[in-house]
Design goal:
- It is built from 18 helices and 15 strands.
- With 452 residues, it is α/β, with parallel strands linked by helices.
- The protein has a domain at 7-13 and 68-110 and 232-448: Rossmann fold, CATH 3.40.50.1100.
- It has a seven-stranded mixed sheet with strand order 1-4-5-15-10-11-14, sandwiched between helices.
- Helix 6 links the parallel strand 6 (131-136) and strand 7 (155-161).
- Helix 3 runs antiparallel to helix 5 (114-126) and helix 9 runs antiparallel to helix 10 (207-220).
């Protein structure tokens, strides 16, 4: 009997193309709109903040987009990442389910985020950009772009959501070690930040505010562009390198997932593992189920409205149709900082609306409990964000135990929790709160949606 635990691929099997699910959508995405006249945006509208190659990928409907060789060469530092069969977790749960997890925590930054940070840095460098501004929540994206900036000799300026800036000092140190600067947001560096501080001097920040600050600075200088770590089409495209590898790895053990699970804040890691399999379903392949898991305190997919909204709090971005809690929504400071965003990727929102993705929300106490169950069985402490996917996977495995079904469950373990030990310390000491859905704040924020 095959007892394989770690399923690997050689460097030669790093994918040569990213997969673009836009080519297989049963209905096209709603267009991105200019906020001044509600007309569809064109390349010229995006040129002040993105390089041309990224704009082309954002608007592409080609099924395969070639990965440049310098990007594949950088990927070789950690890709292909391993796929694990969670045999010890299966035994601990007493489940007949076959549990697999793609482990993206082996990257130099400890998460899946370098999968898009590397190509975005490459494209900016190729077009003569000197500096990139960005935002970060928990610090995973800021860490990854700092790493990419060092690889391609770019100055990186990161606006980090203030509550995470204070919670996670080692993430700040990581960014600064690679030469990036890290600023707590909201800050007095930008007009957008000063406007928030004028109204709320003690504001703990949000990804929407940090995006406003980063976009504002990028638009002011010709040598500066902006980079986003989730939500947008080109980001989700770059992340599919993970799911494409997973397909080859599962072929080695002659298996295929019945369910694919990922945590969702903006949608990048869920899309990375799920979209290649979802594309096969859209083309007539197996009827795999897809579960997107979010925090109950920021329930974008499960409680948000599918509508046009700004991607940032300062209303500097175009309007996209997505599941949203409202651009003014200020999430509470729960520890999964990478999932504290008011909106969701338009592609994931669209596919959820069409019924291909089933969203689910959990509270942070349940997620930390699941993370420790996983860690004590598998030996890897997950990031707080990844704990949401772990929780859903454990629930599905227990359902298999109760039904007697042996289903294949695949989830993306998108990062390790080595920079998040204070969160685990607080959980073990009983100091974490049981966050609930923010109904009053949510209603207020949704009242400010644009009248499209």
């Amino acid at each position: 009997m095959d007892e394989t635990v770690k399923i690997t691929l050689p460097e030669s099997d790093i994918p040569r193309y990213w997969y673009n699910i836009n080519a297989d959508l049963p209905a096209p995405l709603a267009p991105v709109l200019r906020p001044d006249n509600y007309e569809p945006v064109g390349p010229d509208d995006l040129a002040p903040i993105f390089p041309n190659a990224v704009i082309e990928q954002e608007m592409s409907t080609e099924r395969e987009v070639e990965i440049p060789e310098p990007v594949r060469d950088a990927y070789r530092q950690w890709r292909p990442s391993p796929l694990y069969r969670a045999r010890r977790l299966e035994k601990a749960l007493g489940t007949p389910a076959r549990i697999y997890y793609k482990y993206e925590g082996v990257s130099p930054a400890g998460s899946h985020k370098p999968n898009t940070a590397i190509p975005q840095a490459f494209y900016n460098k190729a077009e003569g950009v000197k500096r990139i501004t960005t935002e970060t929540g928990a610090g995973q994206w800021g860490s990854s772009l700092a790493l990419a900036g060092a690889m391609f000799d770019l100055d990186i300026e990161v606006f980090m959501v203030k509550v995470s800036f204070n919670q996670k000092p080692y993430r700040r140190a990581f960014m600064e070690s690679f030469g990036a600067s890290c600023i707590a947001s909201p800050s007095d560096t930008t007009a957008a930040g000063r406007a928030v501080l004028a109204e709320q001097p003690d504001a703990t920040g949000s990804l929407g505010i940090a995006i406003s600050e980063a976009v504002e600075l990028a638009a002011q200088r010709d040598d500066t562009k902006y980079a986003l770590g989730s939500v947008l089409n080109h980001v989700l495209l770059h992340q599919t390198v993970s799911g494409l590898e997973t397909m080859r790895q599962l072929e080695q053990v002659d298996d295929y997932p019945d369910k694919v699970i990922g945590c969702t804040g903006g949608g990048s890691n869920f899309a990375g593992v799920a979209f290649p399999f979802l594309g096969e379903r859209l083309r007539g392949g197996p009827a795999t189920e897809f579960i997107a898991v979010e925090p109950a305190a920021c329930p974008t997919l499960t409680q948000g409205k599918f509508a046009y909204d700004w991607g940032d709090t300062g209303h500097l971005t175009p309007l996209t149709k997505m599941h949203t809690l409202g651009s003014a929504f200020m999430p509470p400071g729960f520890h999964a900082g990478g999932l504290r965003y008011h909106g969701m990727a338009p592609l994931i929102s669209h596919l959820t609306d069409l019924g291909y993705i089933a969203p689910r929300a959990y509270g942070q106490l349940d997620c930390f409990a699941a993370g420790l169950t996983f860690a004590r069985a598998e030996g890897i402490i997950p990031a707080p964000e990844a704990n949401h996917a772990v929780k859903a996977t454990i629930d599905e495995a227990i359902a298999c135990r109760e039904s007697g079904e042996s289903k294949a469950l695949l989830f993306n373990l998108c990062g390790h929790g080595h920079f998040d030990m204070q969160a685990y310390t607080d959980y073990l000491a009983g100091k974490l709160e049981a966050e609930t859905g923010p109904s009053a704040e949510q209603s207020m924020a949704l009242s400010g949606l644009p009248g499209v």
